[in-house]
Amino acid sequence: MKGKTFFIDLTKCTACRGCQIACKQWKKLPAEKTRNMGSHQNPQDLSAITLKLVRFQEVEVDKTLQWLFFPEQCRHCVDPYCWEAAGGDSQDAIVHDKETGAVLFTKKTAELDYDMIRGACPFDIPRMDEATKVISKCDMCNDRVQNGLKPACVQTCPTGTMNFGDREDMLKLAEEGLAKAKVKYPKAMLVNVKEVRVIFLAPFDPKLYHKTMMAEAGPQMFTRQSLFAQLFKPARAMFT
Amino acid sequence: MTNHWIDFKNSDCILIMGSNAAENHPICWKWVLKAQESGGKVIHVDPRFTRTSARSDMYVPLRSGSDIGFLGGMIKYILDNKLINKEYVDLYTNAAFLVSKDFDFKDGLFSGYDAAAKKYDKAKWAYELDENGAIKTDPTLKDPRCVFQLLKKHYSRYDVKNVVKITGTPEKQLLAVYKTYAATAAPDKAGTVLYAMGWTQHTVGVQNIRAMSIIQLLLGNMGVAGGGVNALRGESNVQGSTDQGLLFHILPGYLPTPRATQPAFEDYKKAITPVSKDPKSLNWKKNQPKYAVSLVKSMYKDVEADKGYEWLPKLDAGQDASWLTLFDKMLAGTFKGFFAWGMNPAASGANSNKTREALTKLDWMVNVNIFDNETASFWRGPGMDPAKIKTEVFVLPCCVSVEKEGSISNSGRWMQWRYAGPTPMGETKPDGDIIYELFMKIRELYQKEKGAFPDPILGLNVDDWGDGHVFDPHKVARLINGYYLKDVTVKNPDGTETVFKAGTQVAAFPALKDDGSTCSGNWLYCGSYSGPDKKDNKAAKRSTEQTPEQAKVGMFPNWSWAWPVNRRIIYNRASVDQAGKPFAPQKPVLAWDEAGKKWLIDIVDGAGNPGAIHPFIMQVHGQGALFGPGLNDGPFPEYYEPLECPVTSHPFSKQLQNPTAMTFAGEEAKRTVCDPRYPFVCTTYRVTEHWQTGVLTRWLPWLIEAEPQMFCEMSEELAKLRGIKNGEKVILDNPRGNLWAIAIVTKRFKPFQVMGNTVHVVGIPWHYGWVFPKDGGDAANLLTPSVGDPNTGIPETKAFMVNVKKA
After folding, report:
1. What are residue A95's phi and psi, to 5 degrees?
2. Which residue in A121, B421, B491, B754 could disulfide with B759, CB within 3.0 to 4.6 Å?
3. Chain B residues with beta carbon closer than 8 angstroms to that of A183
4. In this complex, how many residue pairs, one in chain A and one in chain B, have their CB atoms less than 8 Å apart?
5. What is the rounded CA–CA span in Å between residue B756 and residue B770?
6. Predicted confidence (pLDDT) per residue in B607-655, tens digit
7. How far is B709 from chain A (nearest CA, A)?
8. Residue B778 — φ and ψ, nearest 5°?
9. SS3 of B41-67
């Protein structure tokens, strides 16, 4: 398996939100009208114009306060459910770029069944523009990547949290990162490492960050056979 | 900073106190993480758990404003447990100096206090001199009058029990910090401190930093890789602006501003020439007259320096012209016109209602800015009646920093050249062009109408500013570096002679003269532009070339240029022993090459062989100052409460507050101490997403999307007490003003146990203002008091009292 992969090391994230802003800047996406809801997180959720969102969560782990930061985006699944759900090779509304592994939503997604596509995503990522019905999500900055650049979020990250490169290099980096992290965080793990191209190194239980940080149904969910079996049920329901 | 950003990676223990480094200096975290990866510990001490705390190894709470208790306790802990770096303290500090019998300390006051004037007579804190005028010392450190013993005595009151009682820091955590940090006393270990406005914005601001400096000297952490006292500057060029003398009390290069009591240049030169009888003290400041003459010549190159000095504006004896005083005088109608240049005082300065009212007393105001702001539009702000305001406001649109060429100096003292990016929009201009054009116009008026004192205006050297119309940053940078005004012949050590022709750039500040043959706009920057061509502009250097030894400590001498003389870690002589051997051989800053008779790695402080001179060359006597007799509020930091505080007493003395703090007549009634109507401590801070008062960031949709509104962070306990739910609107108020905010109820704030009572601390950001966005809220400074540090005048905006209730 070749292609590209992100490695996101949450032991280094300070939630500066450079990635969230850089994404909007490169994509020329407008800001949402927000208000403070009693948290530093804003916007409150992903949307058709917010493709990368840093989620904030305050939890106590072993009686010690932890402030967890989760820079969420599409995971670019190795075997993308959304693409399969749309019809795989038989359609071109969702394109699976075989070279990079990027999963790309085109304008033709307006013709797809939004509930089915969003429901197919184990991470609840896709969002539809109410006016155009086009479904959106992170596209791995495929335009940048095809031109030898890193995705905008990776380019801007000041701490080394966000990494991007060839899959084998990123897997190596992820394993090294995990070994280092284990010293301080014995429960640290690489989230869905085999199934996704956006690998989070989570120092704490992924459930503490956000309910859909990790697809929990187990590895069987990540086979095509099981996918087809699930195709007409919202897979999301399995995880929540 | 004594060190620089990359150097953080060399640290074994990074203490972040009075700073929210990860949020407000996001890029620095890269180097903090590298220190952590190498086994270094990161400690965050702060009233609130922040994004910095989230990534630190230890988060330790303390009540806002109680830092000297915390640090004084650490000094005592280090001394009691004999944890000092003995060799370093003996060799490189003033621990052995004997202090005169006039020095005394009783119940919170040092000797020499004049209660009527609220001032000290600092002559009472002098050292004891022998018959030749040299300082008496006791190298055994046993004499009860030596600095070391006085230090011990002073901090003997700061026991753990009392520190816990006043700071609200749990004992276990307090001791964990003391133990971890004190471990950096090992000669091959280094501890560093990162601080910012959380330490400076107090009526004991300077003494907070002094207390930490004492700790750093006791542990041998100054001048070494991964050590130092490092101020994280809150504005990209604030280092540059202070270097260039933008404050009232200094001229460029930190030369003191002349006073009216020094009418002749000789008076001034005498006052800036300190004397040391110690032959090993380089006493670098004795060279200040050369720098002062060269500065005057850079301004008035066509007249004698004595005449040029006479033309310089002078402060009256004892006059303070710092920020708070300025607005106090403005309110009193003392002056008529005001330039708010790249500043938004109506939101940025303490006590905004006072500032805003002061602006109504002006005849005219010029606001130079990129966007509309609370200052430019003060006359149509909340509570203002434009019909009744006489102030005529001119708004000049300037271009954005990235649209112009020039240098900025970062916190690590690196002068970094930046090139112009996009073309300025519309009729906006670089600030340099605006000043230049303004000056040419003023000069034209003086030529035509003469005026009261035209000479300083007509005689000013503007040839070096540009071409007569357009500002030239290269010409100015060359002037700041300085050049020869006459042909100068220099005898070389080998007997040959070198002639420097008039017009030649000066190579470095040791070549500056006091005879008027050189000019230099800022001696510290002499050497930054040492030739006529753009290639001689060292600020523009971008080479990563370095030796393997430099690579080891992350030193890049060919990347930009650092003042002074490209030295990357100042006081670096203190990193080696008397033979020139590094105390930390695994991360040396300096090493003596015996064969080549030269210093390797960094540029050494001062010259000469190992052991030839004391390392702290900017100190008169060359030694690190455990005892610091120069400050206005005492030679040792002493515990005082903020001028608004939640207690009526503290455990260390009967003196509740800093007796020398800057205050203004008639405002005491608006300050509260232990007043049940204003029971909560409030502190102000920043978020990553906004910049200063938000003038630049509130208009950026993506940033205002991320942090849209004024908020007030508070503990769950306080929220329960006041029936406030997360996300609800609350009102904060005190006798100076009120404002609304959205409540962020969080586990990241916890109530403090202080002197047997529960004390709640709340926090608000200072980035908002009524101009834009309309639902964003107003300035945090509506609540802050106009009281200041007695040394700098910086306002106490980090600890004051408020009430918080549901809106």
Report:
1. -110, 135
2. B754
3. none
4. 101
5. 40
6. 899 999 999 999 999 999 999 999 999 999 999 999 999 999 999 999 9
7. 6
8. -120, -175
9. EEEEECCCCCHHHHCCCEEECCCCCCH
CB-CB contact of B1 with B230 (8 Å) = yes
Question: Which among B328, B345, B355, B233 is positioned nearest to B693, based on CA atoms?
Answer: B345
- Identify the bridge partners of residue B753 per DSSP, sorted by sequence position: B758
Chain centroid to CA A105: 14
pLDDT tens sequence across B306-353: 999 999 999 999 999 999 999 999 999 999 999 999 999 999 999 999
Measured between alpha carbons, how far is B606 from B492 in angstroms, rounded to an integer? 19
Helices and strands, counts by H and E, chain B: 23, 31
d(CA B353, CA B366): 20
| Dist CA B208 CA B228 (whole Å) | 15
E strands in B13-53: 13-17, 41-45
Would you say B601 and B590 are in contact if contact means Cβ atoms under 8 Å apart? yes
Nearest to A38 among B49, B701, B726 (CB): B726
E strands within B620-735? 680-685, 711-715, 729-734
Question: pLDDT tens, A49-84?
Answer: 999 999 999 999 999 999 999 999 999 999 999 999
Q: What is the DSSP letter of B308?
A: H
User: Is residue B489 within a helix (H) or strand (E), and if so which, with residue range?
Assistant: strand B488-491
Q: How far is A59 from chain B (nearest CA, A)?
A: 9
Instruction: Measure CB to CB from residue A67 to each of B51, B706, B707 and give the nearest one.
Output: B51
Whether B693 and B347 have beta carbons less than 8 Å apart is answered as yes
DSSP string, B602-620: SPPSS-SSTTSS-S-TTST
Quick one: pLDDT band at residue A1, thresholds 50, 70, 90? low
Helix/strand/coil for B520: coil
What is the chain B residue with the closest CA to A67? Answer: B54
* d(C-alpha B23, C-alpha B29), whole Å: 9
Please give the domain boundaries of chain A with CATH numbers for all domains. Answer: 4-31+53-73+148-219 (3.30.70.20)
SS3 (DSSP) at B453: coil
Token match 């607005």: residue? B327
Strands A64-72, A94-96: pairing is: unpaired
Q: Which pLDDT value is given to residue A236?
A: 45
Q: Which two tokens stand for residue B658?
A: 């800093």
- Taking the Cβ of residue B19 and every Cβ of chain A, the question of whether any pair is shorter than 8 Å is answered with no
ipTM of the complex: 0.95
Both tokens of B576, joined, read: 């080696």
Nearest C-alpha of chain B: how many angstroms from A33?
6
- Give, as one character, the DSSP assignment of residue B466: B
The per-residue pLDDT for range B452-466, each reduced to its tens digit, is 999 999 999 999 999
CA B593 remoteness from chain centre: 36
Within B542-642, strands assigned E span 561-562, 590-593, 598-601
Dist. CA B15–CA B33, nearest whole Å = 13
The token duo for B408 is: 């900025």
Instruction: Please give the residue that has the higher pLDDT: either B440 or A240.
Output: B440
Among B23, B704, B742, smallest CA distance to B371 is for B704
Which of B350, B387, B347, B352 is closest to B367 using CA atoms?
B347
The DSSP element (H or E) to which B477 belongs, if any, is helix B473-481
The tokens for B174 are 């307090």
Residue B661 in 3-state DSSP? coil
Q: Which residue of A has its CA nearest to B688?
A: A16
Six-digit token string for B368: 């130079």
Q: Which among A49, A54, A67 is positioned nearest to A15, based on CA atoms?
A: A54
Question: What DSSP string describes B136-161?
Answer: PB-TTS-STTBHHHHHHHHHTT--HH
- Determine if the peptide bond prior to B773 is cis (ω within 30°): yes
Q: How far apart are alpha carbons B360 and A49 in whole angstroms? A: 44
Determine the Cα–Cα distance for residues B622 and B616; give it in Å rounded to an integer: 5
